[in-house]
Amino acid sequence: MAPRKLAAGNWKMNGTLASLEQIDQLLADHPAPGCDVLICPPAVLVHAMAARASGRIAVGGQDCHAKASGAHTGDIAAVELADVGASHVILGHSERRTDHAETDAQVEAKSVAAHEAGLIAVICVGETEAQRDAGETLDVISAQLAGSVPAGATAANTVIAYEPVWAIGTGRTPTNDQIAEVHALMRERLSARFADGADMSLLYGGSVKPSNAAEIFATPHVNGALVGGASLKAADFGPIIAALSAA
Ligand code: PEP
To answer: Does the CB atom of residue 163 touch ligand 1 within 6 A?
Structure first.
């Protein structure tokens, strides 16, 4: 099995019910994309978006708790996301790692919870600018993969997203050689650890837009993208889906 191509959108803390018309537009413009399409809206929109999409695109959460239920005010369980129609959940996004001091161990525990709930975990890794400047990128990515991806990960239940922290929302992107170097390392590490690691989908994320998508998708071991800002509007996300479909 070859890794599945996935165009994933992360709406972050953006969007209201009115924003769901973007889904209608996306589905009208791309009724049969040549790749999987996922949108992770704010949690309060997951149910409505899943109903609106009715299986034509996948819908996911942006985080989940490591426990299935309990006294955790404000948190959301993986099983609750699944109950309202989510098929995926983003875990370990750098904004969670920074804003909520999430550790690799927590991301690993959340990933286990996601798997137990039947969700596909989209696990994010990425170096800061200081770490890249210090020549630590490959060590950081190796450590995050080792610490965040649980032993039960398979190509069917896990997607890995490489998102350099300094490229998220900044308009800056690594060179293709830099993306290729990290993706080759991830493929090597995952293949060494998991029986079907060669088949896990690897996404690049960080300032992907219609103008740079095709070049990024031509990079070895890049099986798709995790897209923030450019996923909010069908007019921007659509061309990215088209570029991945053609890759
Ligand atoms: C992200 O937050 O996952 C992301 C990649 O954001 P952007 O595309 O806006 O850089």
So the answer is: yes
